[in-house]
What does this fold into?
Amino acid sequence: MANAFFGGVHPHDMKAATNEKAIQQLPPPPEVVIPMSMHFGAPCTPLVKKGDAVKVGQKIGEFRGLGAPIHASVSGTVKAVEPRPYNMGGNMMSVVIENDFKDELSEEVKAPKNPDALSVADMVEMVKNAGIVGMGGATFPTHVKISGGIGKVDTVIINGAECEPYITGDHRTMLERPEEIIGGAVYLAKMFGVDKVIIGVEDNKQNGIESMNRVISAKNAPVEVRALACRYPQGGEKQLCQAITGKQVPPGGLPSNIGCAVFNINTTCAIYRAIHDGMPVVRKIVTVAGSGVAEPKNLECPIGTPVSRLFDECGGLDERTYKLVMGGPMMGMAQYTAEVPVGKGTGAMLAFCADEEQTVESPQCIRCGKCVAACPMHLEPLFMYQYASKNKLDELNDAHIMDCMECGACAYACPARMHLTHMFKYGKQKLKDKMAADKAAAEAKKAASEKKEAVAK
Amino acid sequence: MTTDYKSLNLIATSSPHIRGEQTTQTIMRDVLIGLCPALLFACYNFGVRALSVTAFSAASCVFFEWLYRRLLNKPQSVGDLSAVVTGVLLAFVCPVQIPYWTILIGDFFAIIIVKQLFGGIGSNFVNPALAGRAALLASYAGTMTTWATPLNYAPVFGSTADVATSATPLAQLKGGTASFLMSRYSVGDMFLGKIPGSIGEVSTLALLIGFAWLLYRNIINWHTPVFYVGTVAVLTFLFPRGGVGNFDWMIYNVLGGGLMLGAIFMATDYATSPVTAKGQAIFGAGCGLFTVAIRYFGSYNEGVCYSIMVMNLFVPLIDRYVKPPRFGAVKEAKEAAK
It folds into this structure.
């Protein structure tokens, strides 16, 4: 059956706080801190040093291997290049820029004369130079996804599910900037050489669907908007592919294995701006919400803005706030300081001061099986938890723990409040470590026996 | 307003940062609500003593659980209400004249021996209430098989020796007097529960209301009860006895005895049933098979209690072999075959 995936949960969507508020521009921050890692892959090398003058869109970090370049998001002077706290925990080499509030655009940013006449290779190159990564939070470099998928992909999907509670940035983008989404989708269709691009949207965003459909019919664009059931994790890449095509991504595989490529709504907009205007990723739409936030809003701000600025703009935080979450409440990462900057994958900043967490003392599994029914990857979380807590790594592997995408549906559904997702993050790391150790041991053994043979000869 | 971000007391635990509404406690509370219709009917059928025995049993279970956790210095767990459920269910499978001290022994066995010694909630391998009943049946066979005639109320305190008693429908089916049974209790009586039997088992209607409630509140899957009752219905329809029609034999078997109570509230016990829907279907069908086998070939009139306990022992095996299909793996196998 199309439009369906197994499992999932129905959290309260909590979107009413922000889904009718237009995206607002944050007043320019006096200083931005741009970490050299905002993508999946090795950190970038800084290209500027203390005292350098920079302009908006100027490249300040170059990637090696898998990655994407990083650009200055404000104009001004480089104040420092030093490790600073960032969203993945700990510190990361960052470029600190003091804003001169002139907002001067760098000469490096050049709009092509005729964007519609560009070749596929040129378009991919522009996406690469613009530093685009998956803006839904996974931050996989988009140019790699495109160049790796060309020829293999027959279904291009734009992910407008926005299934995480609280977040409404994509929804607002559909309402306020539909032409960017459709424009980006058309470029994607050209790059992949497909006849049609499908935008999957959860059916709680009817006005967003209508808004995009108006642009599609006005431009006669090869794009179809498809309404999907409202169920978390509808926006999971594998679940979205399953809902749209009925096919399942094989274990350990990518959507390209079943001929799919998935792009987030804001990634699609970034592709449009990169190809149409030559504009790199320097700004981000962030939903600021949660019980601890006085006045929830959707804010657009330069990359590198400390999240405390966003909270200030929303009237500050309740003093009982116990958790700051970057991203959605189901998969986002809790931060231990409000000084972390907005990155390319930051779609939301949440502050919680009520009983969202619902922690209990010494939780005990009651074997209700609700985690099994909730798991969209067809796993059995309760058994995985037992194996992981007892360090039974072989059993963990047999239980396919590596298929777990840490969506949190099991832990959400768990009436006993077991720390399931937490335990699986730990278990996966343990298993990875063991696999690496086993591999190293096997290689050492092989080398030793070869050496022995050589000596024997 | 400016916030002093440095003074916030932040924790940085793993996602997900929100949790669903159901907790162990709300689930147990919903199960208790689901048991209420049957309890109300029991008060009508057997008198207030049905309520007092049930309340006493629930209180005893809570006391034993509290005492055990207290003595062994374990985190207190009585707040999750699971002991209340065990106490009510044990009372529901006992006759209304059962002396209070007898049910106290059953409560002790259920909570201490069956539940707590194996690690408490979620860790026991047979249903505590059923194990408690089995222990009582083995120890006090006479008491446990004396059934009050409906509407002959037993006193809350004092001797219950004067209460009129009669054979249960299942005993009559077994005794080969099926047609006499049908003349004494109509199908309507059977469905409403105006028959002799254990406190909570008699009214199919009340139990079905509880079933609907549990489904509505998303407490249990339909698989176990439907496959359980379905299997009993099919087998008894196919192999009637007692010289009555297939349908009559089937309907009296399904409505008599503890089948509904067992299928809806006992076989669906989380700790002692499989975790997958498919496993639950197999489990239910197995319970049905054993129930009919015991009723047909065993020496007991009733087979629900033992059949569920036997199937409880198969749960680890079912869970081991009935797994959800691996995501994406089916397709892979098909492509490999090509």
